[in-house]
Amino acid sequence: MFCMNRVVELFGHPTRDRELPWPRIVSDHQCLFNSKKCDKTRKSDSSIVIGTCTVLHGRARKPVAICPTRLLEQGQVFVDCFQLLRSHVPGNEIHILPEVSIPGGSVDFFLVSVKDKRVQDFVGIELQTLDTSNGSVWPERERLMKLLTSTESPDATYYKQPYGMNWRMTAKTSLVQMHHKIRTFQHLNKKLVLVVQDCLLDYMQKEFNFGHLKNPARIEDAMHVHAYRLKEQANNSLKLSLETRLSTDADGIER
């Protein structure tokens, strides 16, 4: 019954690991991936912290990240963008700046190379995970909470309540945002990286025109897509693994 729950990561921890101090984890609300209090709250009551990172979806019960912060595991997405800092040299400082506004919107993160307090180079990084649709993960999360922190048996109807993934709206919104921002980066001869999960990239490639993107990525291009897989480990945890790197330019995003 415990393993049937479709919430597989809560506050960054694998829910299949029953040996973890779940009452403390739940009360602290600390996100494992950014060492801050989880900011994912209920729309109906912002005082309630949800903490759901990853859920199972589809007949294959594939783990799907539903929180962008999940992609920050051990800072690997920043390490994998390091090669795009073309003007970086050893000895420069590296800074990660969140939520920077540019023409066309704001960018989730900037990876910046600095020397003598002057910016030498930078890369913009956008994180995109799936949104849920056709229901809410909340009932499943509540069922899990009873399993983890109480001896009380959860209501079986929790598991029967469905939720889906808003594939098309998530993909379309993300690509439109890239279209609005990439011209700025290309004009400055800088790079913009869209970080997604492999399943979202698979959907994009089926529904949109991706045939002209370079695979593997070409470092000269302004627009890059990094797709990650969530691999299950022996201890039931999930680990990010870079699977695919694509690239194109502003005209390619417009296409």
Range of helix content: 10-25%
- Give the tally of β-strands: 12
What is Rg? 19 Å
- Low-pLDDT stretches are none
- How many angstroms separate the termini? 47 Å
The secondary structure category is alpha+beta
Overall average pLDDT: 91
The ordered H/E elements are EEHEEHEEEEHHEHEHEEH
Coarse shape: globular
Percent strand equals 25-35%
For the largest sheet, list the strands in their spatial order. Answer: 5-6-7-10-11-12
The biggest sheet, with number of strands, parallel, antiparallel or mixed sense and barrel status, is: 6 strands, mixed
The tally of helices reads 7
Attribute tags:
31% strand; alpha+beta; four-stranded antiparallel sheet; 12 strands; 255 residues; globular; single chain; six-stranded mixed sheet
Report what the structure shows.
The protein is α+β, with helices and mostly antiparallel strands and 255 residues long. It has seven helices and twelve strands. It is 25% helix and 31% strand. Strands 5-6-7-10-11-12 form a six-stranded mixed sheet. Strands 2-1-3-4 form a four-stranded antiparallel sheet, with helices on one face. α5 (167-187) packs across α6. The longest helix is centred in the last third of the chain and has 21 residues, at 167-187. It is globular. The model has no long low-confidence stretch (mean pLDDT 91).
List the SSEs and their pairings.
Elements: E1 7-10, E2 13-14, H1 22-28, E3 52-57, E4 62-65, H2 76-79, E5 93-102, E6 105-115, E7 118-127, E8 132-133, H3 138-149, H4 157-160, E9 164-165, H5 167-187, E10 191-197, H6 198-207, E11 223-232, E12 238-248, H7 250-254
Parallel strand pairs: 7-10, 10-11
Antiparallel strand pairs: 1-2, 1-3, 3-4, 5-6, 6-7, 8-9, 11-12
Helix pairs in contact: 5-6
